[in-house]
Design brief:
Mean pLDDT: 93
Distance between the termini: 63 Å
Radius of gyration: 19 Å
Shape: flat
Order of helices and strands: HEHEHEEEEEE
Strand content: over 45%
Oligomer: single chain
Structural class: alpha+beta
Low-confidence stretches: none
Number of helices: 3
Helix content: 10-25%
Amino acid sequence: MKQWILISAMAASLAAQQTRREVVNPAPTPAEDAKPNSDKVPDVYAIPGKFERVLVLRFKNDADMLAGIEKMVKQEKIRNGVILSAVGSVKGYHIHQVSNRTFPSKNTFVKDPTAPADVIGMNGYVINGKVHPHITLATPERAFGGHLEPGTIVFTFAIVTIGVLDDSTDLSRIDDKTYR
């Protein structure tokens, strides 16, 4: 019986550990990953726009942050927007970060469903109805962050603020890594 309890405890602790996996994120064609920068694309450019409204989203305990943002973007018919801020806490997280310096890009996904953390901030965009959020989290030991993924679950509460841009704002190429 003691052996069974020990095995069960070890299995539970293994299941609760952080997991990592790396994924290659290729462009639609290998030629697009290999192409050099173009002189026709400026190093930096400005996109004019105006906020039509600002929405403050409030999440309760056990809500999935990404699913909630996506739900509200659809419900509120947000085409383009800016994620301005976020605060709160989570009882588990799932994020990814870029993990290399050459094309094709690679992402490392980090998931810990049992690690509590404070939400220090969030920023990002809604681009043609698609959410592109980046989150910063903190524990007593460190601060870290990356792209928000499904499985980041609210603990006490979370608040996310989105500035909704007017329909004349064109963000269609803003996160296109092949537009270079």
